[in-house]
C-alpha cells in the first residue's frame, strides 16, 4: 500500500492532534512536553499500526508572539517499500500568534521530517483563528508530496495544494475538573485518484482531559468517514491499510478510543 497519508499534525487533546501545540510565552519561554498514548492518530489515520506511541517536544515562545518548536514521535508504516524502515517522525515548526479584541490568531509553517522514509517529508503553511472555546485552522501543503502521495491524475504528478481544515471546540466541564474537546477535520487531497476524491475524507473526535497527579490524562474517540465507496486497490478504504511484521493487514482508519497521558515541563 502507498502509506501516503499515514504520516502525521496536533495528539488526542494532547497527543493525537499533532505537533502544532498551544505555545505561550510564560515566565520561562522554553517549555517541554512528553506524551504516552495507546495509538498515534494523525488526521484520523494511525501512524503506529494501531500500536502505542511515545512522543515529546520543545517550544520557545517569545513575548512578541513569535515561536518555534520541535515535536517527535515513533511511527510504524508497515512493510510498504518506501517506508518499511521508518520509525521516527520529527516536526519542525515556527510562527506568530497573538490576540486582538478577544480574537486569537496564529500563522506559521511546519515541516514533517521522516529520516528513514523515502519521499514522505511534507511541508505545510497554516493559519488559524480562535474565539472563546471555538477554533479553526487551515493547513495548506506547499511541498510536492503529501506524506508520500504525489498525485495520480493525468498531467499532474504532485499533491501540492492539499488542504486540511481543523475545526474545534474546547471548554471546561462543570464537574470532575474535566475539559471537553470536540473536533472536525476535513482532508481534501489535491489530485485525488481519478478526480473522484476516493482518498479524501472527514475526521471526527470527541474526548475529555483531566489533570491527574501532575499529568494530563486524555480519552478520545476517533472516527473517519468518506472512505466507504473507495474500493480500488490503490484508493479509498484500501489506501489506508498496511501490513505489519506478522503479515496481518491493519485497518489504519478504524474507529478507536485512545488513552493518553501527558506531562508539560
Task: Explain this structure.
This is TorF family putative porin. Keywords: Signal. Pfam families: Gcw_chp. The protein has 265 residues and is mostly beta strands. Strands 1-4-5-6-7-8-9-10-11-12-13-16 form a twelve-stranded antiparallel β-barrel. It has a two-stranded antiparallel sheet with strand order 2-3. A two-stranded antiparallel sheet has the order 14-15. β7 and β8 form a beta hairpin. The longest helix has 4 residues. The N terminus is likely disordered.
Uncertain spans: 1-22
Strand proportion: over 45%
* Shape type: globular
Nearest-integer average pLDDT: 86
Largest sheet: 12 strands, antiparallel, barrel
Percent in helix: under 10%
Q: Count of helices?
A: 1
Task: Output the strand order for the largest sheet.
Answer: 1-4-5-6-7-8-9-10-11-12-13-16
Number of strands: 16
| Alpha-carbon distance between the two ends | 39 Å
Question: What string, H for helix and E for strand, traces the elements in order?
Answer: EEEEEEEEEEEEEHEEE
Class from secondary-structure proportions: mainly beta
Give Rg in angstroms. Answer: 18 Å
Short description, anyone?
It contains one helix and 16 strands.
Comma- or semicolon-separated keywords:
single chain, 265 residues, mainly beta, 12-stranded antiparallel β-barrel, two-stranded antiparallel ribbon, 1 helix, globular, disordered N terminus, signal, CHP02001
Topology:
Elements: E1 30-37, E2 41-42, E3 45-46, E4 53-61, E5 66-74, E6 88-100, E7 103-113, E8 122-131, E9 134-141, E10 163-172, E11 179-188, E12 201-212, E13 215-225, H1 236-239, E14 241-243, E15 249-251, E16 256-264
Antiparallel strand pairs: 1-4, 1-16, 2-3, 4-5, 5-6, 6-7, 7-8, 8-9, 9-10, 10-11, 11-12, 12-13, 13-16, 14-15
Amino acid at each position: 500500500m502507498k502509506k501516503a497519508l499515514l504520516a502525521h499534525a496536533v495528539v488526542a487533546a494532547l497527543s493525537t492532534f499533532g505537533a502544532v501545540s498551544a505555545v505561550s510565552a510564560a515566565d520561562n519561554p522554553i517549555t517541554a512536553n512528553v506524551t504516552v498514548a495507546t495509538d498515534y492518530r494523525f488526521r484520523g489515520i494511525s501512524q503506529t499500526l494501531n500500536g502505542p506511541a511515545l512522543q515529546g517536544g520543545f517550544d520557545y515562545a517569545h513575548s512578541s508572539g513569535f515561536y518555534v518548536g520541535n515535536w517527535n514521535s515513533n511511527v510504524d508504516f508497515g512493510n510498504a517499500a518506501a517506508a518499511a524502515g521508518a520509525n521516527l517522525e520529527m516536526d519542525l515548526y515556527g510562527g506568530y500568534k497573538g490576540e486582538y479584541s478577544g480574537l486569537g490568531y496564529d500563522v506559521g509553517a511546519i515541516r514533517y521530517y521522516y529520516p528513514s522514509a523515502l519521499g514522505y517529508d511534507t511541508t505545510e503553511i497554516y493559519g488559524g483563528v480562535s474565539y472563546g472555546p471555538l477554533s479553526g485552522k487551515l493547513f495548506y501543503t506547499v511541498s510536492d508530496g503529501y506524506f508520500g502521495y504525489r498525485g495520480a491524475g493525468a498531467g499532474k504528478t504532485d499533491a501540492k495544494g492539499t488542504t486540511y481544515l481543523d475545526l474545534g471546540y474546547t471548554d471546561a466541564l462543570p464537574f470532575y475538573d474535566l475539559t471537553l474537546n470536540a473536533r472536525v477535520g476535513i482532508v481534501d487531497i489535491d489530485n485525488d485518484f481519478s478526480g473522484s476524491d476516493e482518498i479524501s475524507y472527514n475526521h471526527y473526535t470527541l474526548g475529555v482531559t483531566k489533570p491527574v497527579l501532575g499529568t494530563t490524562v486524555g480519552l478520545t474517540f476517533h472516527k473517519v468517514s468518506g472512505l466507504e465507496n473507495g474500493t480500488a486497490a490503490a484508493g479509498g478504504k484500501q489506501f489506508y491499510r498496511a501490513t505489519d511484521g506478522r503479515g496481518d493487514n491493519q485497518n489504519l482508519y478504524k474507529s478507536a478510543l485512545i488513552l493518553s497521558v501527558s506531562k508539560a515541563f
